[in-house]
Amino acid sequence: MSSRWISKRAGTFEASGIRKVFDLAAAIPNPINLSIGQPDFDAPEEARRAMIEAINTKKSGYTPTQGLAALRDELQKRIDVKYQHADRKVFIASGTSGALALALLVAVDPGDEVIFFDPYFVMYDALVRMTGGVPVPVSTYPNFHYDINVLEAAMTPKTKVIILNSPANPTGKVASRDEVKAIAGLAAKHNILLISDEIYRTFCFKEFTSPAEFNPQTLVMDGFSKSHGLPGWRVGIVHGQAEFIEQMLKFQQYTFVCAPHVGQYGALASLDVEMKEQIESYRKRAMMLYNALKDDYDVVPPEGAFYMFPKAPWGTATEFVEKAIKKYEMLIIPGGVFSTRDTHFRISYSATEATIERGIEAFKKLVKDR
Ligand SMILES: Cc1ncc(COP(=O)(O)O)c(C=O)c1O
């Protein structure tokens, strides 16, 4: 292969550092795996049955670009009741990642700046570069609060988009109602597109607020990957202003075409399945881990998603994580993967209580390994 074949665009970002952790861990037969970015519960039985039925009744063709009418209509009804925005339209994307890619393809011209909060979901930085934009990470260290003054200071005439992710990956932080209102107001005042990535909306241990409540122009990204344990079926939800949604659909038509047909039946069957028990179990695991670590580690209390983001008690995060993997066979992710800083590390508590207990033991020893 010739390097001539590879675009300059491809050189603007690296493969995710999470892969490096998995490579290091490949030889460990029974690791303490606290690195998983998906629910550890299976898709609801209703969803599995609906998907089997869809396969058996030959639902293998394309769906309309915007998604199955039954799923879309039901979601549209619920969104209309909740927001009462005359102009808010929904469609089904190929996962929330697909939705993010389409949104940035529509919004970003070369050189446009896209603000997101640091630490951030890895894909934001890569997608902004992929679409020719300039990533502008805004620090939320050390407590991961969203400071409106810091946000406003990062804005320039080139700022085109702000991405808010609450509950957040990797910090587990949930933005307060006041913070959300302030961010929504600032985006409206400066006519900046606000993308709200709400994929962890149901994994919330305090009140959840969407900026779309305050700013009707907000583009909301949601989906079934986390809420209903369907990540492999690639069903995302997007809703926002009709004109912007039309543009996203144009890009979907020429890229993903549609979300997987069978997965959309699974999503439809999931809509009314109660997930309270699963969320409660995550809250329990979060508190179990937090209470065990809080005396030895600088860690912000978990509020949602299924992550915590403590500070490494010694060394860089990379050094700390290497020790965790090599000496204790524990998989965690160094913060540099999600941040401009390499000081913290991500723990996922989407793992069994037994695994978390093994992890706690390892963390207690690790802190003394400096
Ligand atoms: C914050 C955030 N947004 C979006 C996604 C992507 O979700 P999907 O699997 O639906 O593409 C993830 C997955 O980890 C995530 O953590």
General description of the model:
Helix 7 links the parallel strand 5 and strand 6. The chain folds into 2 domains: about 130 residues, Aspartate Aminotransferase, domain 1 (Alpha-Beta Complex), CATH 3.90.1150.10; about 230 residues, Type I PLP-dependent aspartate aminotransferase-like (Major domain) (Aspartate Aminotransferase, domain 2). The chain is about 40% helix and about 15% strand. Helix 2 runs antiparallel to helix 9 and helix 10 packs parallel to helix 12. The chain is an alpha/beta fold and about 375 residues long. The mean pLDDT is about 95. The structure holds pyridoxal-5'-phosphate (PLP). The site of pyridoxal-5'-phosphate has 13 residues, from helix 4.
